[in-house]
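Weekly puzzle thread! Below is a chain. First person to post its structure in token form gets bragging rights.
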Amino acid sequence: MGKGKWDPTLKINILPLEQQFFAEFLIYLNLFKYFFFNFGRSVDLCVIEENKSKWSNFGNWTECTESCGGCGVRWRNRECLKKKDECNCIGQNREEEVCNLNVCIYPKQPTCCGQRFPASVNGTFSCAILPKFDIVENETLKY
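Winning reply:
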């Protein structure tokens, strides 16, 4: 091939040789620093996709611990499906929620639990969290 003629198989370096050498040097320097400062430490295999643990779907809800007043709690669990024992799932294995918000009938006390009060909600008498009101003198209620 003569000088100055175009050849489609010709391969060139985009960077001049000195810059290419310096760029490769920085890559190897960073690798050396990584291995030097992490020598003897175990590699976190859990970040590799095929080793990541995953959650199963949640199971069914348990029965509510109370029959009324929003005093009860129910929960459901899920399982961490581990591919390696040392790789844990991120998040919680249990979901909980308040249940049975219907108002307790006298003589059961309290009628409602926590910050819940008897109220009509969508035409049903139940235990609800009431909105906060700011009372300002000589003005109407604001919430």
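Puzzle host: Confirmed. Bonus trivia for everyone else. The radius of gyration is 33 Å.
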